[in-house]
């Protein structure tokens, strides 16, 4: 450490090699500003019920409208937000934006549910259930309008607290979704211990099903496993009509991915729903054979 004089005469001790932490201090200040100045935006990606072809809901995906750097995806700023302890603030903001849009869609006749991603660090807060109840009330929405998505990943060390929160959400009528299923360790054990309504099979499992029979078998048997545990299963990252057709044949409940739609703005959702109705008539439904 080097002692440095400052103009106020105080001495501050700073690590000699501090470029990294200085950069991240700057980023933290920017992220606070992002939250304060309304630079947080959402995009929405539809979830399709494969049996009826109906859009059951949309997932809210956060973006940062950087003042000079364009629209930034979550992978570029969520880790730093987590380190800066800003995830609770972010989750509140995302809930507020998502529920506001949800009210708009419903007023226009589209009874969509909205899925919101919530990190483990927020799930362990015993006050989270009350926060959610308060937000729903404030927006005049029923609990069925909201799905909370959690990744099994961060929950490993906080299983009991997570169980309590998730059970509290479900008691209130908010659905719980286990995101990125299959990426964590001991995932099967988690499925049984975490109160949930659905699992989302991580997109990396979908990547090879069109050409690799064992990848296809993993997905097919995971669908059966979920059903044996009375969970709905959602396939993430469905990119091709072939994947869609296989999943439909395997009785997968819901699909999400670029094949259906890329994430879109809240304003676009209503007109997109109309276009989807036209496309739907040409898609294979669940149970139809693909061979
Ligand atoms: P996730 O919740 O698993 O969301 C799915 C991600 O996959 C999204 O990326 C989505 O745009 C992308 N995706 C969807 N369909 C396809 C597809 O067919 N092919 C490919 N290659 N990708 C697809 P995105 O928006 O960049 O989000 C990344 C992750 O950031 C999310 O993964 C989620 O874990 C996290 N995240 C997003 N929004 C929030 C938020 O509001 N709060 C928190 N805590 N995390 C968020
Ligand atoms: Mg998600
Ligand atoms: Mg996921
Ligand atoms: Mg993911």
UniProtKB/TrEMBL annotation:
Q: Which UniProt keywords apply?
A: Membrane, Transmembrane, Transmembrane helix
Does this entry carry the keyword NAD? no
The record's GO molecular-function terms, alphabetically, read: cyclic-guanylate-specific phosphodiesterase activity
Spell out the protein name for this chain.
Diguanylate cyclase (GGDEF) domain-containing protein
Q: Which organism is it from?
A: Parafrankia irregularis
Asked if the Swiss-Prot or TrEMBL record annotates the protein with the keyword Magnesium, the reply is no
The UniProt record lists the EAL domain at 24-277
The shown chain, on whole-protein numbering, covers 296 to 586 of 679
């Amino acid at each position: 450490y080097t002692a440095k004089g400052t103009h106020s005469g105080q001495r501050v001790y700073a690590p000699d090699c501090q470029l990294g932490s200085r950069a991240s201090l700057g980023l933290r200040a920017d992220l606070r500003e992002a939250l304060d100045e309304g630079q947080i935006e959402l995009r929405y990606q539809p979830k399709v019920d494969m049996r009826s072809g109906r859009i059951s809901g949309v997932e809210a995906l956060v973006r940062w409208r950087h003042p000079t750097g364009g629209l930034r995806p979550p992978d570029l700023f969520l880790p730093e937000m987590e380190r800066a302890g800003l995830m609770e603030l972010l989750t509140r903001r995302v809930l507020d934006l998502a529920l506001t849009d949800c009210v708009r869609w419903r007023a226009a006749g589209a009874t969509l549910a909205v899925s919101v991603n919530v990190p483990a660090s927020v799930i362990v807060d015993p006050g989270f259930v009350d926060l959610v109840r308060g937000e729903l009330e404030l927006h005049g929405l029923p609990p069925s309008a909201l799905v909370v998505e959690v990744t099994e990943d961060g929950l490993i060390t906080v299983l009991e607290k997570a169980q309590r929160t998730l059970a509290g959400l479900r008691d209130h009528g908010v659905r719980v979704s286990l995101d990125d299923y299959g990426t964590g360790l001991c995932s099967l054990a988690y499925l049984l211990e975490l109160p949930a309504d659905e699992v989302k099979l991580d997109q990396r499992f979908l990547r090879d099903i069109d050409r690799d029979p064992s990848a296809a078998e993993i997905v097919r048997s995971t669908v059966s496993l979920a059903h044996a545990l009375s969970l709905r299963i959602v396939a993430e990252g469905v990119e091709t009509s072939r994947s869609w057709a296989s999943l439909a044949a395997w009785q997968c409940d819901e699909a999400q991915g670029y094949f259906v739609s890329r994430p879109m703005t809240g304003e676009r959702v209503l007109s997109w729903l109309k276009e989807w109705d036209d496309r739907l008539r040409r898609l294979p439904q669940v149970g139809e054979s693909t061979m």
